[in-house]
UniProtKB/TrEMBL annotation:
GO cellular component, one term: Golgi membrane
Main location: Golgi
Membrane topology: Single-pass type II membrane protein
Keyword Protease in annotation: no
Similarity section: Belongs to the glycosyltransferase 31 family.
Annotated GO MF terms: galactosyltransferase activity
Protein name (database record): Hexosyltransferase
Pathway annotation: Protein modification; protein glycosylation
Cofactor(s) the record lists: Mn(2+)
Pfam families listed in its UniProt record: Galactosyl_T (PF01762)
Cross-referenced InterPro entries: Glyco_trans_31 (IPR002659)
E.C. designation(s): 2.4.1.-
Species: Hibiscus syriacus
Top-level taxon: Eukaryota
């Protein structure tokens, strides 16, 4: 009897252990399933984000290639520019040249020129219209015959033109211009500069074969760390012990090619701005494979035959 009872107790104990084991296995299976569903959901969300980024890059550059590398994207743009030029020489116009986006012109412009100004400088704008920009039918003729679009970039009405705000305005101009017009070059000009449109067009046309062009009156200079000085740079410590700016184009006028304008458009939320807009623009191209063209005809402090610009004081 004792032996039979002991056997029953052993049997019942073993059955309870087996039941608990099955419960534990079921719980683990449920957790594993939930974890699998969670991970799959996160991977799906990340995949959707990657697809969105790829489509956004393709939309901005007008390409069908799936690549999120900025350097590769610029290479693709440069290669297609060469293909377009070759097609034009042979008398063909590619679909990419015509463009599928409604915001793109049927024929690529030579340049889009943005004149940076403010609400309080209407006299400057009026003087520019009379001197070289023109207006109405004459402005339209300039666009049709020379393939150069000229527009004022004013900004917000309450814009006090703090240095960093001016840099942001220029960044916005390049981004908006490349999204609105399909051009070979995008040109920034101050509102106290006279521009020789014919000379500008000739200089730009002579450099159509160069990839990723950054053209202007190149310079560098001292970085001022004292707040009481006119050209004070709050981020002076970023420029090293020598306190010298990197090479960049003078802010009076400079031009960048389409690939660089596209780079600004794609990356504008994370591009640093400094106290001076010309330094800001130059900083955006550091680390990229860019052709820096030091062009003396873009130096506006002196006028000579073939000069692109001249600094003027409007009354």
């Amino acid at each position: 009897m004792h032996s039979r009872g002991s056997s029953n107790r052993l049997y019942n104990s073993g059955g309870g252990s087996a039941f608990r084991s099955r419960i534990s296995a079921l719980v683990l299976a449920m957790f594993a399933t939930m974890a699998t569903v969670y991970v799959a959901g996160r991977m799906w969300q990340e995949a959707e984000s990657r697809v969105y980024l790829i489509k956004e890059l393709d939309r901005r550059t007008g390409q069908g290639h799936s690549s999120v590398s900025v350097s590769e994207r610029l290479k693709i743009v440069a290669c297609n520019e060469k293909d377009i030029a070759a097609s034009k020489r042979e008398g063909f116009v590619s679909k990419e040249y015509l463009g599928n986006d409604d915001t793109r012109s049927k024929k690529r412009l030579l340049a889009v020129v943005g004149i940076i100004t403010t609400f309080g400088r209407k006299k400057n704008r009026d003087a520019i219209r009379k001197a070289w920009m023109q207006s109405g039918a004459a402005l339209k003729k300039l666009e049709e015959e020379k393939q150069i679009v000229v527009r004022f970039v004013i900004g917000k009405k309450d814009d006090l033109e703090a240095p960093e705000e001016r840099s942001k305005k220029i960044k916005f101009f390049f981004a908006r211009a490349v999204e609105s017009w399909d051009a070979e070059f995008y040109v920034k000009v101050n509102d106290d500069v006279y521009v020789n449109i014919d000379a500008l067009g000739a200089k730009l046309s002579a450099n159509l074969d160069k990839p990723r062009v950054y053209m202007g009156c190149m310079k560098s200079g001292e970085v001022f760390s004292e707040p009481n000085l006119k050209w004070y740079e709050p981020d002076w410590w970023k420029f090293g012990d020598s306190k010298s700016y990197f090479r960049h184009a003078s802010g009076e006028i400079y031009a960048i090619s389409r690939a660089l304008a596209q780079f600004i458009s794609i990356n504008k939320p994370i591009l640093q701005v400094y106290a001076h807009d010309d330094v800001s623009a130059g900083s955006w191209f550091i680390g990229l494979v860019v052709t820096h063209l030091k062009e003396g005809k873009f130096c506006c402090n002196s006028w000579s035959t073939g000069s692109v610009c001249a600094s003027v004081l409007f009354d």
